[in-house]
């Protein structure tokens, strides 16, 4: 009836005109659903001890704040998003609620870090990694992994001072963060502060006793210091924990056996290292074993394979770097081992 009345007055609705509401950015209005989608009954785990009413109320308020944050994000009000995220940090479970929001940023930061390690210190991936990390920290300043990723990025590009600051920031949030402990140990080792490096690595083995990397790096440092018995204990533990996942502990065990003058045992470890990770470093160790055993021709052949592999990888990296950036290739910071 309304359209017929408009037609009698000569007005015609335009098929191209949209209501003003459809041209505005849509709002999610998620907070309006809090009372319906979250009820005390859904919070209670009947198999556990009942929670107090004040705890339920606090969790409801945290949920409301999170949905307000998502509502602001849907409208592009990022300043309000950052303000609400800071308010959420002090609410019960608020920091944990922010984890899914920063997870995609941290995932992109990890990808950029891996790309930077593959491409070298001139890679543009380093800046991408740091950018993603800063975005994550704006939303959740207590995300320990963000500090760790920033520290690894700084360390790989030679900025040891800022790397140490980032790792210490991560450890202040999570004292058991394995990557942060290994990273700060590497910073100390690069400065020649080997006692501090050992202290951090032993802390890593205490807080992460089932992580083979903590034992491997401790053993590698002991090997560098000539403390062969300590190295043997740590590397044996690392090899047992690593299983078939890495050849690094076996490679270090081969180096240890060579230093002890036992080329036969070294060859066994070197063969295992090569079978798990046929990299130039392990091939070189195997060649040294054959050389110590007097099998010169076998050693020369293996060493030639290792040299060819190194040359191939170096040529590939040089071509990639020159093509993209026009700069020479420089090695990454060597670290402790591996």
Task: Label this structure with key terms.
single chain; 338 residues; mainly alpha; 18 helices; 0% strand; disordered C terminus
Textual characterization of the structure:
The structure is a single chain. With 338 residues, the chain is mainly α. The chain contains 18 helices and no strands. The chain has helices spanning 2-8, 20-23, 34-37, 40-43, 53-74, 78-89, 94-119, 125-139, 144-156, 160-173, 178-190, 194-207, 212-224, 228-242, 248-259, 263-276, 280-292, 296-324. The relative contact order is 0.06.
How many strand segments?
0
Structural class: mainly alpha
| Share of β-strand residues | under 5%
Reading the helices and strands in chain order gives HHHHHHHHHHHHHHHHHH
Spatial shape: elongated
Please give a quick description of this structure.
This protein has 338 residues and is mainly α.
Task: Give a topology summary.
Layout: H1 2-8, H2 20-23, H3 34-37, H4 40-43, H5 53-74, H6 78-89, H7 94-119, H8 125-139, H9 144-156, H10 160-173, H11 178-190, H12 194-207, H13 212-224, H14 228-242, H15 248-259, H16 263-276, H17 280-292, H18 296-324
């Amino acid at each position: 009836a309304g359209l017929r009345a408009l037609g009698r007055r000569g007005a015609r609705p335009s098929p191209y005109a949209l209501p003003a509401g459809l041209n505005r950015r849509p709002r999610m209005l998620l907070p309006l659903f809090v009372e319906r989608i979250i009820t005390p009954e859904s919070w209670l785990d009947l198999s556990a001890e009942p929670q107090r009413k004040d705890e339920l109320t606090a969790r409801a308020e945290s949920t409301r704040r999170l949905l307000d944050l998502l509502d602001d994000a849907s409208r592009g009000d990022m300043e309000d998003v950052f303000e609400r995220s800071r308010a959420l940090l002090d609410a019960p479970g608020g920091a944990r609620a922010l984890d899914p929001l920063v997870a995609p940023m941290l995932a992109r930061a990890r990808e950029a870090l891996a790309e930077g390690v593959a491409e070298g210190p001139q890679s543009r991936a380093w800046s991408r990694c740091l950018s993603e990390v800063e975005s994550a920290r704006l939303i959740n300043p207590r995300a320990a992994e963000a500090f760790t990723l920033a520290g690894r990025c700084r360390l790989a590009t030679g900025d040891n001072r800022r790397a140490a600051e980032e790792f210490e920031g991560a450890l202040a949030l999570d004292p058991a963060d394995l990557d942060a402990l290994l990273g700060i140990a590497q910073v100390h080792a690069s400065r020649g502060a080997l006692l501090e490096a050992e202290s951090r690595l032993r802390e890593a083995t205490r807080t992460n006793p089932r992580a083979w990397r903590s034992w491997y790096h401790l053993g590698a440092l002991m090997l560098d210091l000539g403390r062969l018995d300590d190295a043997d204990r740590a590397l044996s533990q690392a090899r047992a924990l690593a299983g078939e996942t890495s050849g690094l502990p076996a490679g270090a065990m081969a180096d240890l056996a060579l230093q002890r003058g036992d080329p036969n045992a070294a060859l066994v470890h070197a063969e295992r290292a090569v079978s798990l990770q046929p990299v130039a470093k392990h091939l070189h160790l195997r060649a040294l074993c054959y050389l110590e055993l007097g099998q010169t021709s076998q050693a020369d052949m293996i060493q030639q394979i290792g040299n060819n592999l190194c040359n191939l990888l170096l040529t590939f990296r040089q071509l990639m770097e020159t093509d993209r950036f026009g700069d020479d290739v420089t090695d990454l910071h060597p670290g402790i081992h591996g």
